[in-house]
Write a structure and sequence with these properties.
Elements: H1 2-12, H2 18-29, E1 34-40, E2 45-53, E3 58-66, H3 75-89, E4 94-100, H4 104-112, E5 116-125, E6 136-144
Parallel strand pairs: 3-4
Antiparallel strand pairs: 1-2, 2-3, 4-6, 5-6
Length: 145
């Protein structure tokens, strides 16, 4: 199952290497409080969300992705709604996330689902390997469920 997540992760984030992805998921597996959820067919994962509990009533989204050929088809909303349903059963009241300020599709989705901006982290995303020398801010959002 982890290999399916790694494959989907690499499709969502092609700037990451396989070695990075394998190390990332290996690190995540060590923490038992981290949960993976996926929208998938029998062969592949279309969308995933990785999240963790940060208190009895709060959760944090660590990563979310939708493979490129499934974007704009509702898979991101579906996986987030499924996660929220599970978290409500655990009496979670707040879900937090952050994303790069220029990720407009993510911002549109989060706002549509009821997340509100609660802050930002200046220069959180340092220059990417793509040669972009400008650091980007992280937008912080929270949803009360």
């Amino acid at each position: 199952m982890i290999q399916e997540f790694i494959n989907a992760y690499l499709l969502c984030f092609p700037e990451k290497s396989r070695e990075y992805a394998e190390s990332y998921f290996s690190d995540l597996e060590q923490y038992k409080f981290i949960t993976y959820s996926a929208s998938k067919s029998e062969e592949e994962i279309y969308a995933f969300v990785i999240y963790r509990m940060i208190s009895c009533s709060e959760a944090e989204i660590i990563d979310i992705g939708v493979v490129p050929d499934k974007r704009s088809q509702g898979f991101g909303a579906k996986i987030l709604n499924e996660m929220e349903f599970k978290l409500k059963k655990q009496n979670v009241k707040k879900i937090h996330l952050e994303f790069r300020e220029d990720n407009f599709p993510a911002e549109k989705l989060y706002r549509k689902l009821g997340y509100i901006k609660v802050g930002e982290r200046k220069d959180y995303y340092k220059a990417l390997k793509t040669g972009n020398s400008i650091a980007k801010n992280a937008v912080l959002m929270t949803k009360f469920i």
